[in-house]
User: Fold this.
Amino acid sequence: MNPIVVIGSGLAGFNTVKEFRKLDKETPVVVLTADDGRNYSKPMLSTGFTKEKSADDLAMASPEQVAEQFNVTVRTGVHVAGIDTDRRRVLLPDDHLDYSALVLALGADTWTPPLDGDAVGEVFSVNDLMDYGRFRQALEGNKSVTILGGGLVGCEFANDLSNGGFQVSLVEPLGRCLPMLLPEAASAAVGRGLESLGVTFHFGPLAKAVHHNRNGQGLVTELSDGTHLKSDLVLSAIGLRPRIDLAKDAGLRTNRGILTDRTLRTSAPDVYALGDCAEVEGHVLPYVLPLMAGARALAKTLAGEATPVSYGVMPVTIKTPACPVVVCPPPEELEGEWDVQADGNDVQALFRDQEGALRGYALTGEAVKEKLKLNKELPALMP
Assistant:
């Protein structure tokens, strides 16, 4: 019997395996991963300096431990060359692997803006545990970091690195913290919280270039308004893009992500996708709650009981303890308006549609305590 093959060893891949093994102990499963295969929780990468955790500390299990615990084969350092959906085969550089079902848990790539300068190759991004290990090692003995991007990852790292004793400068062209997730009053509260830790903001300009400092010490980030920011390291946290190239090259239907139905089935037979790489009935949700819901549903489908995924209320907790944030973004393109009540950094912003129904919220500071009450009022995202 050909195995179920899972490509990807992040939260999506490992949680699918974990949930599947609760239902089926024996069907062979092979996990293919391009990295070193350690099991870890990606959201913990932006809390490592606060908690004084190395990459090894954040690893929950080695690939050998995962293989033994879940009765699976884990193949590390594997770069998949392609997928032949007609032959039901994963193509490897010098081999192939036939599958009975294929799970694409490919995740998302970080996006670095086009930059000039002789130090572009030294700009870091942190997208997995190995990235985190390299970044943490590079920071040893250094004191300052410039972060490009003030979205979720950028703000979380600004808070975490500040807690770790680093001087942080953050560049965000859209003019405020978390501009794609929060209304202005909530953005301002997060900005004040991070400023209280010593974070310096550069709102408005774009990063144009990263150069080596002329004296040989550190880097200089050149902004579009002529500002030059000196720091020891530069971290790009602009955003994530679903990894779709492998699926696209195999002829699977893609849009922003790999297109799936409610059972996470792609346009090819017995090929599924979930997590950051998937677009489920129009939803691209690179967050933990939808990923876990997907893993539970897909495990049942793989075990023989076709199960559509359901997304209830899916709040996102942003790890900025200097100003706690929980946000449940309203559906894109929905017409309505924000009703904002603010008391210092305690902001309750409620998004109501044209009929007055609650369709989203953003809470900061002490207002995050209202989350559970508001969740009961919100409709499920995808019942």
Summary: The longest strand covers residues 336-343.
